[in-house]
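I have been asked to look over a protein record a colleague put together. This is what I was given:
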Amino acid sequence: MIIANSHTILSVQGLRASINGTEILKGIDLTVKSGEIHAIMGLNGSGKSTFAKVLAGHSAYEVTGGSIQFADKNLLELPPEERARAGLFLAFQYPIEIPGVANTQFLRLAYNTVQTQRGKEELDPLEFDDFVREKMKLLEMKPDFLDRSVNEGFSGGEKKRNEILQMALLEPKLSILDETDSGLDIDALKIVANGVNRITNKDNATILVTHYQRLLDYIVPDFVHVMQAGRIVMTGGKELALELETRGYDWITANKQPVAGVNA
C-alpha cells in the first residue's frame, strides 16, 4: 500500500553482522516507509532470519558495520526491550513456550508496558479482558487461549495466531514476521494473513520473511527483495515472487541488478 506523503520508518545502510566470527550479513541496504509491505525471500542460509534478529537486537549477533535508523532513533544504540517499546515487533519463526505464565498475564503486561511508553492509560484486568477478546476475533481464537500458559501445548497454527494477536495489541510501527507461514495449513494461513491485513494501515509498515509465494497470495507486498549470501541481490514488485515460484532462485545469480525504479 504505497501512499502519498509517507514517511521513512526504517533505513538500513551497509549493514554487516556476524555470529561467532562468521559474517552472515554482508552489506544490507533497505528503506521501508509507512504504509508499505516488504517481502524478503531467499533460500535457507541466505541471511533472512539473521536480518530479522539483528533488527530486533538478538544478542548472539555482532553488528560489524553499517547503520539502522528506526523512525528518529539509532536502533543500534537501543537494547531489545527499548526497540520493542519504540514500536518494533518481531514475530518468531519458532515461538517459545513459557510454562506457568498465563497468556492473559503476559499479554496485559506487554500491552501496558507499551501504553506507559506512549504516555497512555494502562488497562486493569477487567478492562483488558474485554479489549483482548475483541482483538482475538480477528484471529478466530477461542477465549480459553487466555487461560493457557504462553504457547505451551499450542499447535503451530495456534502459536502463530498468538504472535499476530500480540501484534494487534501492541500496534507497532514496524512488524517483522519471520516465516510466519512456516508450519501452517492453508486455513490457518488465511486466518493469520487476514489478521495481518486488518492490522496494516497507512501509519505502520510490515516486513515479511518467507521462502514461499503462498503467503504473498494473501498478504500482497509492495516490494519483494531477494537475499543471497547475506546481500539483497534483486528487488521488484509482487510479480517477482511469482517469477521465483516458477523459476526458483538459480537464475538470479546471473542477474543481480535491482529492478529499475523500485525502492531498494
Observations:
- The chain has one domain: 8-254.
